[in-house]
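thread: overnight batch results

M.L. [08:02]
morning all. the overnight job finished for the chain we discussed friday. pasting input first so we're all looking at the same thing
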Amino acid sequence: MKKALFLFLAISSFNIAKAGDGKFKEKMKDFLNPMKDDTDSTTVVEEKKPFPIDIAGSVDVYTQTNFLGKVTNNVYHRAFYPKANAFNLGMFNLMMSKKIGKVGFMADIGFGPRAEAANNTIYANSIIAIKQLYVTYAPAEFVDITFGNFSTFFGYELIEPQNNFNYSTSLAFQNGPFYHTGIKANFKKDKFNFLVGFFNDTDTKDDEDRNKYVGAQLGYTGDNGGVYVNFVGGNEPSTYMVGEDEISAFKNYKHSYDLTGSIKLGEEKKGKLGVNAALHSYRYKALKDDEASKATYYTTYLYGQYDITERGSIGGRVGYFNDADGVAAYVIGGAKSYLDFTLTAQAKIGNLRFIPELRFDLASEPVFFKRDGSVNSKLQTVLGMAAVYSF
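M.L. [08:03]
and the structure it wrote out:
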């Protein structure tokens, strides 16, 4: 009787398991493996957390020749890319930023000759340069406040090579402000903005003088481009000698005015046209009762570029620079005016851009080298190749 009952229960269990489409087997597996994961996976995959800081930057290198053979390895009237007939380094740029809610920060450092040339202060040497270092606060949707050291809002071109189409920089850029240290507030309404700021002396990260600069911008940013009117002005510290005594000048004002604009062209927006015009005005008085001396220099540049394919572009830049009063900082040689034309192409491979470039600089006076080594030429011709990787 007991054997018959056991046989009946065994047959019944087999039929139930078969009718349940394997449910019985699955239950037995769960019983034998009580720690088994519900996903039936034998490996544990850890979720990768995002890096807590946003990282961006670039690396650039270049080579160029000035067609002067072994006469000189210098390219004149350049704040950036002043070396020729050799392979040269540009800059390694690393930008670290983060924004959480209404507050944020930017820490922007550069390594290399380009970074050092743009930050020629105690905060720059052949190893590292602080390009930007600031915090931000947005108390409302229509306003952003920035406090610290930041790139200028003035002009068309930027210090970072990945943000310019042309690799070489214009006389307008290298004779305008590079950066400011202070505080600025940018107010936005629809497509318009108004910026106002209060800074140290232009292009300084520290300031031992009580005199300060003010800046302002009125801008419009549309879907196809924008236009901006800029102002930066203040009283620069300066001294003059009375015998063996060094005396501070009474007034040394510099006011700079700038118009910058760009527009995309064509139905597919493959073309772009840009313009930049700037006037820099000085007013100097050594003593309060002296008659003020005045000096100016001004620039006008036109930019154009066209995307032939997704990987290839071509563009040009033509500009005029007038320094008849001889007060511009990054122009040497004594010419009263300069006309330069730059033809640039870009070939893109992922994040890497190869940039061949041909540039002509024509001066009103003979301030450039000739092949015989004499400074007796009005024309300087430079052919270069750069590589820029951005991330």
